[in-house]
Amino acid sequence: MTGAEIIMRALEREGVQTIFGHPGGAIMPIYDAIYDSPIEHVLVRHEQAGAHMADAFYRTSGKVGVCFATSGPGATNLVTGLATAQMDSSAVVAITGNIPQELIGTDGFQEADVYGITMPVTKHNYLVKDVNDLPRVIREAFYIASTGRPGPVLIDIPKDVQIADFTGDFDDVEIDLPGYDAKVPVDMTQVEAAIEAIKAAKKPIMMVGGGAQTSSQEIMDFANKLGIPVITTLMGIGAYPAGDDLALGMPGMHGTVTANRAITHCDLLIGAGMRFDDRVTGKISRFAKNATVVHIDIDPAELSKLVHAHVPVAGDLKDVIPALSSKLDKLVITEWWDQLKEWRDKYPERYKTDKPLVSQEVIEMFHEATKGDCVVTTEVGQHQMYAARLFPTSKPRTFLTSGGLGTMGFGLPAAVGAAFARPGEQIVCIAGDGSVQMNIQELATIKKHELPIIIAITNNGVLGMVRQWQEMFFEERYSEIYLADSNPDFQKLAEAYGIDGYTVYDRETAKSLIPEVLAKGKPAVMNFVVYQSEHVFPMIPSGAGLDEMLIGDQEEDSAPIESQLVTS
Amino acid sequence: MKNKHILSVSVRDEPGVLVRIAGLFARRGFNIESLAVAPSGQEGISRTTFVVTGDDNDINQVEKQLFKLIDIIEVTNHTDAPFVDRELMLVKVRVSSPDDRVEIRQIAQDFRASIVDVHREALIFEVTGDEGKMTAFIDQMRSFGIIELIRSGRVALTRSAADDRVEQPNPLNFREVAA
Fold first, then answer.
1. What ipTM does the predicted assembly reach?
2. Model-level pTM greater than 0.90?
3. Number of domains chain B is built from
4. Which residues of A touch B168 (CB under 8 A)?
5. Distance, in angstroms, between B76 CA and closest chain A CA?
6. Domains along chain A?
7. From CA A196, how far away is CA B128, in angstroms rounded?
């Protein structure tokens, strides 16, 4: 058997059912082996999209996503996708072909140092030099990708290794990773310390992030038992049901007033499976100043990296949360809840509809039409923040967004990955007219497989988030954000790919058309022409603290600053 | 407060492992003062010694981030326990006169530095010791004229009978854990 055949058999053994990839010269032996393999291969139109699809496949299913690319340009195209997966801790195994070993280092055709290039954007990577290493390397790659803090692993396989005769033992796959601890043992003394801190708290909050997507049930049980307020970060959406009585919404730069105010005023903050990203904390020195911080994360390197953890607990939430729960009862925090509810009632999600159609209402209409019972993917920008606040899902692994890297071009291919991971489920991709064009070629993949994906473009004709910053912080010097003069007709573009296209200008049509198109269960591109100058509010200016929030149109036209509103 | 820390890191002899480590330092803005790599007593494992400057938080991050690299088996911070450290230095000193030659050789003897090359106008010394000795020797020789010098970077071992190569550090045992 050749190396290429071994690769396909080893992937089968790992339970792989779907591969997203694009062939090319240096990976042709593997593509020849795919021809006879039972594993489904999805032909993408750009390798970056393939990486995002694999990433989304993991995010929605919990099973490692797999993508293929050829050497050189194929592999370098994967880099953005790998970095996206790395930042959001997504388990992906990427396999790249490379030129034959005898040519490596000679600037051969389609040669790039993929091993070197991908080191900083992967959890680990391999350059396989011996065909007999393949079974072990593939086993290790899946193990590393999916255990501990998940992340992408790349395996670079020169062409001569793919065609070489395998003479080893296919079943000898003993993992040899002395430097890797997949599971951190939970330190019970730290758990005890956390319990004491929680018992002593009068104004506690819990903040859950992407790490909680795998421990949603444990988080729900814990929160409900204690009656503790729950904040979900962008990556944590779905891990705790949005709209639940205990939910305060999203924190940070475009978080809710209630969540940000709760952070500023709490005396205990439990961070669970989250990493205090700067978009969450704002200025660190002003972040949760009054709080004892209990930080629970599977990656010990996250503890006290940014926000000092008074009680650092390294471990899997699946172990730590039940351990905490078992020794705690309902918290008596009535006064704190009265305060939180007052804020929540005073600052509901609100936007003005006295203008032409706005993005927010379009996104909210999708929420109403689906009841949030679908998979949502987003691109990056204003629409992403609107979607996080107005279209949050209530089940884990159903809200897919590039949180860490902020990759424009993620949402559309992510929808494809989600569609393969969850056949038959409705997928809605909320996009902007800017970012949707960064991987729009994947409409072909959607068409080919007739995936039930609706791409909702909130088309304001500009790069909206950049425009917002330019208006607020760059004296309205609108530099290079105007798209409307050269945007394609998205309806016609969809039709050119054989996909239903719609253009919507007014709220009445939007309201009636959205449920109609959803009901068809077919791919569709809906182009909503929306008001250009909307702002995402509340907003914390870059470098400011959570207590320096601009409330914006939640309250009135001029943006009052948080610190002027709260005296407590 | 910023201090110098000596870290010993056991790594698997995999291609590119040094690039991984160097890349990590560069990417996260950590500063390496010196770096020495050599085979350890165990087959397939090399021992890398770093001198890193930073405050406790910086060093803590360095240790944890290093430990996350799959090819790194063990990270020991020698600042936590008594240790011995040594550095090797080769120094080429200018010899301008017979008097200088005598004086230079006398100083070298005091430092137990050995002469490894003799030239009419220069001598090369090999000096082994800790950092203080290196600095003192350089200071002494400066007035004669140092033509060039090279240092190996520091290497270190913990002072005890324990073999810290085989001990897996518990990632929870980092110093900050005492809350």
1. 0.89
2. yes
3. 2
4. 181
5. 13
6. 3-163 (3.40.50.970), 188-346 (3.40.50.1220), 359-529 (3.40.50.970)
7. 53
